[in-house]
Amino acid sequence: MTASAPLPPQDAARVARRALPLLDLTDLSDTCTAASIEDLCGKARASGVAAVCVWPRLVADSVRALRASAVRVATVVNFPEGGEAVARTVAETQATLADGADEIDLVLPYRALMRGDVESARAMVEAVRAACAGRLLKVILETGELEDPDLIAQASRLSLEAGADFIKTSTGKTAVSATLPAAEIMLGAIRARGGRAVGLKVSGGLRRVDDAAAYLALADRIMGPDWVSPTTFRIGASALHAELVRAGEAAR
Prior knowledge:
The chain contains 11 helices and 8 strands.
């Protein structure tokens, strides 16, 4: 995203109030520990975000830390490689659900899609969808690797057809993460889908209040001003959280 002038304090505060309840406060760092998760969940409770997103091995710790809280626990599977081992990914999903995960963020086998193997990609989403019936499923398309707009649109449609509740831009582990053009293609697929309510999660590279503002404005333009809510729009971020909290406090 290109740099722009910072938002005026009152505008930044308005964006912060809107964006914080949409946040999946994330720690998928290689050095994340149980102590890190305790701190993450404390911040999540204090600021009223939608969810925390953590490694599978830290789901149980997060569930304990967020007991009696409205904050949900999300985790990642087939992450970040986006492989094609369906049985292994289903087993990983089932284990995290047994630990109390509320939401599953699954990496689509995007390399299979890139080489034209649509059925392998579809099979993964359908299998994980079946394994987490009743829980929220977000499918990560890894749009920075897909790159081609037609492939991003195809991945979006495939994931929605296979039962995704959300489509998500990126793992945040590649050179290119969320971009406005990719999010626009994904929102177009959601709008065209109609019927069952589905959502968009933008993730990777969002660090400033201005970044959140740009994606919210895009969603408003394409889906309408009343569409965005925690059930239809999420922002996956870590550094952005502190910026949103700071913007909200500065305007008081």
